[in-house]
Amino acid sequence: MDRRSQCYQEQVTGAAASIVGLSQKRLQSRQAQRKRQRRTRTISTVALIAVIIVAALGGYAYYKSLPVKVRVNGIEQILPAGTSTEDLVNQGLAQVRAAGDLLAVDGSLLEQGGGERYTVTINGEQSKSGSAKPSNGDDIVFIDGLDVEEDSEIVETAIPFEFEQQGSGALACVTQTGSNGISRDKVGKVSGKSTSEVEAPVNAIVTYYNPQPTEKVIALTFDDGPGPSTQQILDNLDAVGAKATFFCLGTNADKVPEMVEEMVARGHQVATHSYWHNDLTVIPEADVLWEWQSSEASLLAACGVKTTVGRAPYGSFGSREWQASADALSLLVGWNIDSGDWNAPSAQQIADEIMANAGSGKIVLLHDGGAKRGKTAEALQIFLPKLVEQGYRFVTIDELYEICPPPN
């Protein structure tokens, strides 16, 4: 490129740069002008809103300062703005006939005129405050004051519910839950007098009944184990596919937990027969609960089964024991066939007793602990095949309860 061309090129480039620079300056100028216009509009809008708010507040304040026209006990009155119902009384514009009295908690008179000085309604609705300020057109009526009860302290005491027993039979469960009542004792701080208000408890209802299944089922139950004869009894039950319920003592479950586990493994039900086999009706209530809970804990540790199904030692159990057992007992199991195996002279006599009383839904009392129960084990070999021949099926207590829940 010669010198002349180079100079021309430089002139063109410089001119282009000047044009671009001028365009940018014009663009920046227009942008700055738009910003100034937006700022001006915003300031104007804010100022207008402020003027409107100030005007509205001023108008409201002026309105509130105007006198109000009301009716007081049927007479029209024009009141200065801000006049309260208390002002009406103090200025003699409302006549109050009689103040209420101060009463003791039992309703007796403590101080005449010591209650509310007056009662006022505005447009038919009672006003709770003497500082209420009427509005234009309100209808205000003053009437006699109300009586006021003295300040008091209320002490609440729970009234425990009791257990009511209904019916009779070998199974028992709670068919209506109970709820505590409340006694409210109110003591006046001025008079020292007291009154009581009682909310009666709702008693729990325990229903006793004998299952009446439509199919031929019998529940075999064994108490006091596990014991020396438990293994043989389990084998004899297995021989005919019979299932049974074992009411175990907690102390024995602690000694031979593997035997309790074996009962469950073979498909039998384990339940509690207390821990020490104490007569629950003669021990303290706290010990009744302990007997159930301790035995249940032993079974849980032995086989992993949580149960609240129980049989009371000697079958001794009443309302006091239900109360003491709380949630540790959901189903109490008795019996309606006593095999007499605890003192029977022979296995044949045990078997004869059961066969003579067998029937659908019957619960048979047997023992697998407390002593050697070889006669009981032998008796099973005698009567089980005969009952199977007669069409009986052997079920656990849980199964029997499911088949025959308590009557309504």
Helices and strands in order:
Blueprint: H1 3-65, E1 68-72, E2 75-79, H2 85-90, E3 102-103, E4 109-111, E5 118-122, E6 125-127, E7 139-144, E8 148-149, E9 152-159, E10 163-167, E11 171-176, E12 181-188, E13 194-199, E14 204-209, E15 217-223, H3 230-239, E16 244-248, H4 250-255, H5 257-265, E17 269-272, H6 285-303, E18 309-310, H7 319-325, E19 331-333, E20 337-338, H8 347-357, E21 363-367, H9 374-389, E22 393-394, H10 397-403
Parallel strand pairs: 1-7, 3-8, 10-14, 15-16, 15-21, 15-22, 16-17, 18-19, 20-21
Antiparallel strand pairs: 1-2, 3-4, 5-6, 5-7, 9-12, 11-14, 11-19, 12-13
Helix pairs in contact: 3-9, 5-6, 6-7, 8-9
What does this structure look like?
- The protein has helices spanning 3-65, 85-90, 230-239, 250-255, 257-265, 285-303, 319-325, 347-357, 374-389, 397-403; strands spanning 68-72, 75-79, 102-103, 109-111, 118-122, 125-127, 139-144, 148-149, 152-159, 163-167, 171-176, 181-188, 194-199, 204-209, 217-223, 244-248, 269-272, 309-310, 331-333, 337-338, 363-367, 393-394.
- Helix 5 (257-265) packs across helix 6 (285-303), helix 6 packs across helix 7 and helix 8 runs parallel beside helix 9.
- It is built from 10 helices and 22 strands.
- Helix content is 38%, strand content 25%.
- The protein has 3 domains: 68-149, Ubiquitin-like (UB roll), CATH 3.10.20.30; 152-208, Single Sheet (Resuscitation-promoting factor rpfb fold), CATH 2.20.230.10; 210-403, Glycoside hydrolase/deacetylase (TIM Barrel, Alpha-Beta Barrel).
- The longest helix is centred in the N-terminal third of the chain and has 63 residues, at 3-65.
- Strand 3 (102-103) and strand 4 (109-111) form a beta hairpin.
- It has 408 residues and is α/β, with parallel strands linked by helices.
